[in-house]
Predict the 3D structure of the following.
Amino acid sequence: MTRPNILSDNEIPDSLPPFTKTQSPKSFLYTKILKNYVGEQGAYVYALLATNERLAFKRLLQLSRLKSSRLKKILVSLIQLNCVVHYSKSGRSDSNSKSQMDNFYYYPNEEGCFKFLYADDIIRCIRKEYEDEMPATIVQNVLSMGHLTVRAFFQHAKTDKDRCLRIQKAFKRLVDDNWLSPIGKNSFLNVFDLFDKTFKKVAAEYNRENPESKTISQTKRMHMIKSITGDNFLQLLQEEHLHAELHHSSLKSLMGNEADDDADEIGISDMINTDLPLTFSFERYLKRVRSIHLASEARHRIGEISSGVYALALNHVELRSPSVRSREAKLQRLLANVGQTTVGLDPHADLETKNKLSLKDQSTGLVIRVPDVYRQLKSNGKKFGITESDLIKTIYDPADSDDIGSKRPMNALDSDVPPKKAKLEVTESEENDDIEFESTTTTDSNNEVLTLILQHLKLLTTDDNIPFLRETSPGVFYIPFTELVPEYTKHTFKQYIKHIMDPACLRIYNYIEERHLTDEKMLAKHILIKESDIRTHLNKMQKLRLVEVQEIPKTQDRSAIRANFAFRVKYRNGLEVFKNSLIFNMGEVLDSLDDIRMDNKILLDKVSRADVKGKEQELLLTSELVQLQKFYEFERQALAKFCRLRSSLDVFEFMSEL
Amino acid sequence: MSSPIITKTVPSISDVSEIAKSMHQMMTSDGRSSYTQSDLMEMMHLGSIKELMSNAQELLNKGLLKILESSQRDSKEKGLMFAPISEQEAQKVNTMSNDEAMIYSYIAAADREGIWTKTLKAKTNLHQHVVLRCLKALESQSYIKSVKSVKHPQRKIYMLYHLTPSIEVTGGPWFTDSELDTDFIDSLLIIVWKFVASKTYPRCFKKKGIIFNGRKQYSYPADILSGLGCQLPTITEISKFIAGSGVTTVDLSLSDIKSLCDVLIYDEKLELVDEHCYKSTWQSVLEAGGGRVEGVDVYAPQNDQIFSIKDAYRTVEAVSGGDNAEHPATDDENHRTRFYLNSWSAV
């Protein structure tokens, strides 16, 4: 269902106009999702904001042609869901004038849309994590409301004391594991404007304290201001005061005096502040997604069991691991655009940030030792589908009785060289890493498992292209996230090229990337593919901006007929096209679902009637049953498509850069 | 650099003087391709240059000698070189017309590289018709042959009939009749990859690719796969294996093997370890049907795993397999069902 882009007077937008689809793939996808959650008009307002980037209320009213009261309601909902953020025109966020809404600019915000996009998987992930329905219910409510206080959630269970305690306990677990985080007013403000305001404030203060007369060069002055702005802005985003407020409330206020005694009984030392609004931390979910993707990659590059061991190692550091979308890197980009000389992001500054983050990857909290993984195996092994017995005999051992009689393959050529015996014992220093732990586990089988875990961790360090793990000293490992994640994304991107286009395209892409700039003749010589085939593949790749053509003139008049054409790859451009195509496809899947629902509307209405439910076999015609089955099959397939496409978006949207 | 100077031919060769004849014999029996003036003076023990020149002129007149121009590396001066021509060759040239002889001499000078008809025309300064007529005549007498160049497939290149074209012209072992022999390359790629894979993962292809004894993984320890104790195959070992296995009669040099390995690296089937060893990727083993866990259906849905494009090998077979035997899906349909990127062309 589409309708013209321009609305007539007093028309209420009840279906999305074509521009929501055509203006950008993201707009198409987000409006489709928002349509399902907040309705057509909410999606339409979001699309208008996405077109204009920033709109004042009056202008938005003019463009949307909605009633003022209706638009206000929509905006409040969208702001609550974090799909729209605002900022005061005057720079003051606490404006108290009569018509408050007129004083603000409104901006589209992706964060809320992401939460809706991943909502089903988030709930599934929480359910799997706690194997309990309560945390999942809480998260579902938080997601659908945007943010929620514990008190608000208590409303429907006020009389049931046990239920209240269960809720409080679930909230506490979610907050402790960072799935829920407190939300402050800064979360609803536009980041760029907030940064700009911070910068201006810092600059004014600095200039007041250090007037022009002081012998400080302009460059030094700007450098200092930027440095202070960076620190202040990060503090603002972290909202530490909210975290301090998180734990100082008790159930007393809500349920009477007995509640505190109950809290002690169930072991909740400090309760979650019942009046502090909590929101779902998408960043925490992204950490989980990153762990799953990396473990899956290890499964394809090293092996099933190594992947299981890696998943345990990832789980061990997940909570403390660096953010998937680094705030520091984002800050660098913001800082690059302020001041008098705006020359963009300095590559050295970017590199410096990367180096800092790489060092953080090695910090004490993120170190992995064999006993840590063993402990994870004992407690979470089942969840990750790995048991101690799975580990046994997974590493080649020349002394293994299974291998006696079989030719040692590694020495097939050099039979003179004595076989190198693989080191299969944990060294003394490695064993002493955790004395307390060692004292409790001294049996041979445990030692064998420890040794095997070490072997698998070492195996994970052997991959040069994708560094899953690094060994700093014998038996001590860390995950180099900063280095690993971009490499993983690039590798995945290439795998998509291979599977979607052709394996030959991957060969061509890799060769061009290695040579930087090359022509068809060199390609044909080195990748051993016929020139005509190369041309066909290059043409395909060029359409998707995977390769770029550069004309090299051979004559002085730059005659095109005599010119040579060289090819080069631009990873970022290719990735962007790729990502946009995938996002567009996700939108199309949702579109096709809407279409088929519309086509089967009468049947679906009939099925959803109370008197028909459960008696479909008796009350529906055979043809209707067949049609219904077809519909469910289509829906199942479409949702599977959507989930698969979304898994690629995890990588290309969130893990492509710091 | 040498270029031939055209000599005038005479009908008979038995008329030359004894000294000239012995000079020719010594030059041909010595085996060198060319001689300087001093070489010849020394070889013939001649007293004066005049004497040498008269004999050389005699041989030149009979077409038994040709003069080459040689340039020294460090000086701009050019010297003269004398090259003997065998009696049969001289007789052959004797039977040709002047134009044919001229063209023949240029073709002979081009050696195994061959000469392009356009270059020939430019060098001889003859009309195209004349060049084509001469080439046709020489070809019909099996003095010269036309070869296809890999570098320039459109050009007509000529070389002496008895010569084998150089690697630059034929393209090396990867070309058969100037066509890239993709079947040969592909089979060699598989052999090289399989050899490296068998050295990287123990027993990965035994028992139809199923890991033995119900294990879920069976790998070499890390110190065998990297570092000082690395036992992965090098280029030399791969080359030895190819030579020893007798899979091909074509001689493959180390650089040929290296280019095969490079292609496998571009395909992400091999990886370079420590800059001299090769290891195969586990993904490539999985795609080839190796590394399977006993009792686990590769094509079964993976509900506990996140979707990864690298699992595509698990669905490809299923799509083209027996399930859809009644309505076999076309390539395009397969493509769409698998990856859902049908809107790509519209973007």
In short: Chain B touches chain A through 63 residues (CB under 8 Å). The beta strands of chain B are 35-36, 65-71, 78-84, 115-116, 144-147, 157-160, 175-176, 179-180, 270-273, 277-280. Residues 214 and 294 of chain B are 5 Å apart (CA to CA). The first helix of chain B runs from residue 18 to 30.
